[in-house]
UniProtKB/TrEMBL annotation:
Organism name: Saitozyma podzolica
Compartments reported by the entry: Membrane
Entries under InterPro entries matching the protein: MFS (IPR011701), MFS_trans_sf (IPR036259)
Coiled coil regions in record: none
Protein name: Major facilitator superfamily (MFS) profile domain-containing protein
Gene Ontology MF: a single term: transmembrane transporter activity
Length: 531
């Protein structure tokens, strides 16, 4: 039985984590606590076994070495992985600025459906992929998925009409469904809540950094003679081959949990498990718990995160799939449009790490990520309004709309923040797995619907699509404010309840045992939400 008392900081458990770090990370701390076999009685989890016979306290040097290892291996690998995913799924936009549409004889809404059908595959695969990541080794599941969708990218070279394009786009989405949810779960398993925002931002940078060199490469491919293959086919040949190589690396390196990662020593595994257990968010459980699924489905906070993702996605839809066509509408050639998309990727390259650093290192913002989402959303909203006011018309003023098309992409800095909220505020392995699946399912539905508002008859202005984007961005502001209010109200309620019952949380071992119990945030009185 765990006996908690109120935490000193009623808004989150961050203050408690800091206090524990200060107490338990001092080298030579004289009061060490060791896990014995009796502490683990009844436990069959890898995370619990990793602690057996180990001291709970890690020295400051040990924890710094642990973070360096994770940051130097996992963050770059996930950035490369998510970057390849983004480049692969949006390669159709670059191919469309070349000769893909004419070569495949795409007419009417066929191009928009080619974009949307990818998300049907993603939607179908999201929950099964999450179950596979829970039941089996996460890194191996994701690595096999990369090998499969790399092969699909190569098959795109053989497409001759819209039917073939629909098929490869569907299977591309199906196999890519394991990637981002797995990275969210791995981040939540390896880093403490205080450390997570920056790590989410750093690996999400792959989404905006990798497209830049590839746009230059696509430009070079566009200048190649169309024999023996048209330039757009070379794009899919290159990306498919590289994706298979990345898949092999992920298969070997990407972990399942800190309790069994091959790049950790036994001592590092124990320290990594204890750090996350203290945070009460859980490590990993292979046991599927139906009550946690039910709790996730009934949790309004998870639904708010899901709908925030839904409202965040229209802006990246413009940047990823239609910006080249819109820019071309101002009177530029297809090759010039490829290069003029680069500023749209540079903006989030700056915004993502900036937002990650602010929400990690500025104490006033650590528990106000929702408010940061509001600020970034408002900037993107202004840019979307300006895009509507200055539509693409040949000969019109180009500088102002091009600047706002670039600034519109700041919305992508919201992506890692929502991932952080989902990962930090869902306790229990099955509940978090379900929460990620729910959020990504709504993400898929949004990306199925939004491209249909970009009607071919309105190209290149796409006024209906821009209006949908403006409406969604405004709704996102309201949802983020509501999330902040809801989480803080629940934290205050818990503090008051614990104070009335006189419960305590001061014992470190009890806190770690609670963290290993794989209990949900709703049932764990020590859990505090980080809005």
């Amino acid at each position: 039985m765990i006996h908690p008392t109120p935490l000193d900081d009623h808004e989150s458990n961050t203050a408690t984590d800091d206090k524990l770090d200060a107490t338990h990370l001092e080298a030579g701390h004289e009061h060490t606590t060791v896990f014995d076999a009796k502490d683990l009685a009844g436990e069959d989890d890898d995370a619990a076994r990793a602690l057996e016979g180990q001291e709970l306290e890690g020295t400051e040097a040990e924890v710094k070495a642990l973070r360096r290892r994770m940051d130097s291996i996992l963050v770059p690998l996930m950035a490369l992985g998510v970057g390849m995913l983004l480049v692969d799924k949006t390669a159709i936009g670059s191919a469309a600025t070349l000769t893909l549409q004419s070569d495949l004889h795409l007419v009417g809404a066929q191009y928009s459906w080619a974009i949307s059908i990818y998300f049907f595959g993603l939607l179908l695969g999201t929950y099964p992929a999450n179950l596979l990541c829970q039941k089996f080794h996460t890194g191996r599941v994701v690595g096999c998925a990369y090998l499969a969708w790399g092969s699909v990218m190569l098959c795109t070279m053989a497409v001759t009409d819209y039917r073939g394009l629909y098929i490869v786009r569907f299977f591309l989405g199906l196999f890519e469904s394991a990637n981002n949810p797995a990275f969210v779960l791995i981040t939540a398993r390896f880093w403490t809540p205080k450390e997570q925002p920056l790590r989410y931002a750093l690996w999400a940078l792959g989404n905006v950094i990798l497209p830049i060199p590839f746009l230059v490469i696509f430009y070079a491919l566009g200048t190649v003679s169309p024999h023996p293959l048209p330039p757009w086919k070379w794009i899919f040949c290159l990306l498919g081959s590289l994706t298979i190589v990345v898949g092999i690396v992920i298969l070997i390196v990407l972990p399942d949990s800190p309790s069994n990662w091959r790049f950790f020593t036994p001592r590092q595994r124990a320290i990594a498990v204890a750090r996350i257990a203290r945070a009460q968010t859980g490590i990993k459980s292979h046991v599927l718990k139906p009550y946690q699924i039910k709790e996730a489905v009934l949790d309004p906070k998870i639904w708010i995160c899901a709908f925030m993702f839904m409202c965040q996605q229209p802006a990246p839809t413009i940047v990823n799939n239609f910006s080249g066509i819109i820019i071309k509408g101002y009177g530029f050639t297809g090759l010039e449009s490829l290069l003029l998309q680069i500023p749209s990727w540079i903006v989030p390259c700056v915004a993502m790490p900036l937002v990650g650093c602010l929400t990690t290192f500025v104490p006033a913002l650590q528990n106000r990520k929702s408010l940061v989402i509001v600020v970034v959303s408002l900037i993107s909203l202004i840019s979307e309004v300006m895009l509507y006011v200055y539509p693409p018309v040949p000969g019109a003023n180009k500088a102002i709309p091009l600047a706002f098309i670039s600034l519109l992409s700041i919305d992508q800095a919201i992506y890692p923040l929502i991932n952080t909220l989902v990962g930090q505020n869902s306790g229990g392995a099955t509940k978090r797995q379900t929460a990620v699946a729910m959020v990504w399912s709504i993400y898929c539905i949004s990306n199925i619907a939004v491209p249909q508002s970009f009607k071919a008859s309105q190209s290149p202005r796409y006024q209906d699509g821009v209006i949908v984007t403006i409406s969604a961005q405004a709704t996102l502001v309201l949802l983020a404010l509501g999330y902040y209010v809801l989480c803080n109200a629940e934290n205050r309620r818990r503090e008051k309840e614990m104070e009335e019952q006189g419960l305590t949380t001061q014992e470190d071992k009890a806190r770690i045992l609670a963290g290993l119990a794989d209990e949900t945030d709703k049932r764990n009185p020590l859990f505090r939400y980080l809005p």
